[in-house]
Specification:
The chain is of the alpha/beta class. It contains 10 helices and 12 strands. The strands form 3 sheets. The chain has an 8-stranded parallel beta sheet with strand order 3-4-5-8-9-10-11-12. It has a two-stranded antiparallel sheet with strand order 1-2.
Length: 325
Amino acid sequence: MKTRKLGQGLEVSAEGLGCMGMSEFYGDADEGEAVRTIERALELGVNLLDTADMYGPFTNEKLVGRAIAGHRDDVVVATKFGNVRGENGERLGIRGDAEYVRQACDASLQRLGVEHIDLYYQHRVDKAVEIEETVGAMKELVDAGKVRHLGLSEAAPDTIRRAQAVHPISALQTEYSLWTRDPEDRILPTVRELGIGFVAYSPLGRGFLSGRFQSPDDFADDDFRKHHPRFQGENFRKNLELVERVKQIADEKGVSAGQLALAWVMAQGDDVVPIPGTTKVKNLEENVAAAEIELSDDDLARLDEVAPKGVAAGDRYSDMSSIDS
C-alpha cells in the first residue's frame, strides 16, 4: 500500500479503514469478523483506522483497541469527539468546550487502550463555542503528549482558517464521493491553500456506489440507510441510475463499480485519503485492490460526465443542521 501525507507530518496509507459500521448504523455486525477485518487491513498495509467515541456508542473504540493490541506501532489511530451520546445511545447534542474536550480525550484513550491518539478530530463543530477555545484545548492535549495530530470534521472554510491559526490542522474529514462532490467548491481549495490533508468518509456513498443494493428493501430495519433521504422512493431510483452508469465504465475496465468509485476519489489528489468502511474481510480486500487502479484522463472525463456535481438525488442527511456552513 502506498502512503500519503496528511498535513505537514502525518504519513498514512493511501486508503484507510472506516470502522463505524462494525458497531452501529448499518445493521448487525459480527464482532469476530470485524476484528479479522482490521487485522487483515494491517496485513495489507492499511494503517489508518478511523473510529469515534459516539460509534456504538463507546463500543467501537473498545473494539478497535482490542484489534490493535500488539500492533500499536503499525497503526495510525484516528478518533473523534463532539457528538455527545449517553450510555443508552441517546443523543445529547454537540460539545466543544475545553472541559469536555479534555474529558472526552481521556475516555477515548482508556477505551482504545493506548497512550496517545495519532489523529484527534472534532467530530462536529459546536456553534455555541468559539473554535479557538476548542482547538486551544486540543492543542493542550498535543502539548501533554496525549494527541499527536489534530483534525476537524464537517467544518466550514472560515472555521478551518480560525482553527489553523491556533494550531496546525493535519486533516479535514468530510463526505466525498462520486455522488457527494460538494467539497470541491470551497473545502478542498481551502485545505490545499493551508496545507491540510483531506480525509474522505463514505467514499462509496454509504455502500450505494458498490452496486450491491437494488431496492430499499435490501436494508435491515435497524440500518439507518433505510431512512436516509438518498435511499428512499424516487431518490433511490434516480441514484440507482447513476450507479448503473458508473458500473458500465467499471465493467469496461474489468473492475467493480465500488473499486472504480474509490479509485476516482484517490485520483483527486495525493492529499486525499478515502476511508471506506466495511465489516467483512472480502469487501476490505476488494477495496484495497482499488488503490492499484490507474485512471486515465479519458476515464476521469467520462466519470465527470456521468457523475457531475449535484448529481445525487436527496440530501446527505435527513437533518443537515449539525453541519458547519
